[in-house]
Amino acid sequence: STQGVSSAASDVYKRQLPFLPGTGTGTGTPGTGDDDAIVASSSVAGQCAAPRPGINPATGLGYPDRAGSLAIEKRWVRAWIDETYLWYNEVPTTLKAADYATPVAYFNVLKTPLTTASGRAKDRFHYVYDTEVYRQLSEAGVSAGYGIEFAFVRNSRPRDLRVAFTEPNSPAANAGIARGAKILEVDGISVVNSTNTTAINNALSPAALGESHSFRLEEAGGATRTVTLAAAQITRTPVQNVKTVDTPSGRVGYLLFNDHIATAEAQLIAAMNKFKADGVQDLVLDMRYNGGGQLNIASRLAYMVASPAATAGKTFERLAFNNKNPFGFQAPLPFLGTSRNSLPLPQLGLSQVTVLTSPDTCSASESVINGLRGVDVRVNLVGGTTCGKPYGFYPQDNCGTTYFAIQFQGVNNKGAGDYGDGFAPNCTVADDFTHALGDTSEARFSAALALRSTGSCPVPVAAAARAAPELEKADAAQDTGPMLLLRSPLRENRLIETD
Hints:
Number of helices: 11
Largest sheet: 6 strands, mixed
Helix content: 10-25%
Strand content: 15-25%
Distance between the termini: 30 Å
Oligomer: single chain
Mean pLDDT: 86
Low-confidence stretches: 1-32, 462-485
Structural class: alpha/beta
Radius of gyration: 23 Å
């Protein structure tokens, strides 16, 4: 379930960068008419075809934009790629700015054309975001929607699109829509067989508050009904279903963790304090739908899972940049032992943890797995192969668009970080849409508990997984027909954000 919008030094995302790079490899000068000569990004930053008026809500100051043009914005894009992109020297040199109508269109092609060992595109993660929308999503987890996380069991026709979960108090939850419901039609268009993916995508991902669409659902037991949902401001609840389960071999904590956003920190701390008070001896961390987000959140989560002895003085993730060292020396990110408010974090002191995974387990979520393995915490994976994104971004705004170009690869304390094709599970188990998340009878959770008690993947579950379809990951390079793109790329991230 995946989908697939620069600045002068004082702008909103300066706080995310050690400094704003200012040395391009070319010798062109702005205004000379040579739109393909590479200049220093700082010399063309913030020169906008449509400068933003008013006050930037992130800083309380006016926007730094000044009058410019689309041509100059494209020059900034090319300079930013040349200075900071991890694979800048693999970008085709034949691309001409004049062939692309907008800076975004130009940015979209300024990336490596190479592939991974499995044949997938090496860079499947190049994208942009509207700056103000990005600010709201990253800082508060707020977006327009119905409060549904969609999941594909099958993305190509005949499609099988399910409700993975709903956000509390959302339009979907208030309409009684539950995990496992199958989406048959939107606005009378067949989700199963229609080629009109544009109309379906527009309905599944509403752009404006109050936007209304009808959904025909097949629910548990085979009953169907049609509901109309209006998009509302959805504030995501990143940590859900926190519970402690008694087993014959000890107490096991479980939590569903869906987003590495700022509001997750307090919720994760509360969950870990509960688990400590409950005396859990093991943890099942359900990140099957967690595409990532802020790396600092991932570091704190890993710290709280592990022991002081395992994490003290160790690297959670080291960032490897291009050979131009665009952001200056970057100290390795440690296991962060304090909150954003400088309060000490609890630690469970576990030597092993089980993570429930799928192709939607991505980026910062994979950092949690890789970081813990780097300090010899045993991480068992139950579910599906993860997305394969050991890369990350320093999001950069220019003229109201925030650009996400891969700028680093993350490696753990042991120097491991080559997993472009994902982490394979110890125990392959298909997503079980017939049970609620956190139910001990749900196939992946059940298998995790069995794996913990027996040390092996339960054979009946493994056999069922081989016979059942796995949650699919839309990969444009491998598409054979019209695909639906549901999850914003912002939901699949490894972002460097300062506290």
